[in-house]
Amino acid sequence: MNEESYRTGSPADALAERFEAERPQLRTVAYRILGSVAEAEDAVQEAWLKLSRSDVTGVRNLGAWLTTVVGRVCLDHLRARASRREDPMPEQDGRVRLPDPVVSGPAAPDPVQEILVADSVGLALMVVLETLTPAERVAFVLHDMFDVPFDAIAEVLGRTSASTRQLASRARRRVQGATPAADSDAARKREVVEAFLAASRGGDFEALLSLLDPDVVARSDGGTLVPSVLRRGAAEVASQAVAFARFAAEGRPVLVNGSPGVVSFAEGRPLSVMSFTIHDGRITRMDILTDPVRLAALGLTA
Length: 302
Hints:
Blueprint: H1 3-8, H2 11-34, H3 37-52, H4 62-84, E1 103-104, H5 123-129, H6 134-145, H7 150-157, H8 161-178, H9 186-202, H10 205-211, E2 212-221, E3 229-232, H11 234-243, H12 245-248, E4 251-256, E5 259-266, E6 269-279, E7 282-289, H13 292-298
Parallel strand pairs: 2-7
Antiparallel strand pairs: 1-4, 2-3, 4-5, 5-6, 6-7
Helix pairs in contact: 2-3, 2-4, 3-4, 4-6, 4-7, 6-7, 6-8, 7-8, 9-10, 10-11
């Protein structure tokens, strides 16, 4: 909004326009904290309601103010989720829990989602964030990913600045220790994923073995309707890929959280979203969403 339109427009319109300018950043913050696209949208909407009911004439940095509001809303969401025990941590109670993938490319009709992973925070890192406590996750994401000062985060968490700093440090050590190493060459990663897709389509077991790290781990989140699966080792993962070769025929290369991945379809319906972690040219980890309810919500098209 230019200066003249700001003077002639209503204060409510001006505030709404300022909020819309911040919305992409707020959605990204909320997604990183919650690992859910839908919940992130809800958190941002709650921030707008808070803003519309507040007197912010004395707020010098509206973006920073809104970021802390979103952080507080997300903290409440995480605590409520934990108390309901509806979303166990990865591998807890025999289940595998994956955050919502953000898919971009020909199969994804909503390019707006790409802003959520503009700096390529991969799904593997998002899985690690799922293992943090609510307070650790908020502290780590706000400080390490968005440079929010510890004093501001302390207000969100209801802690001292010193204890918040310690919380973020503990979370950082856990994240660094659990996040798998990954290659940075996007073109090379795309080649490996395309080779995996071709080998799967052809049922080429030996070719699959050559692409998989001997200690590869494949995690599948099937939600409440489809059993979750955790597979380890190249032979077991390759055997599974061969068994599902017919679905690989309808696989489409995409970007999953900014990295090469695959969406598989069956009769035009999304069957899975696969994210790959690749290190030294081999696949070390596969995170696969097969939950039909969450897949349907992604709006993917064959």
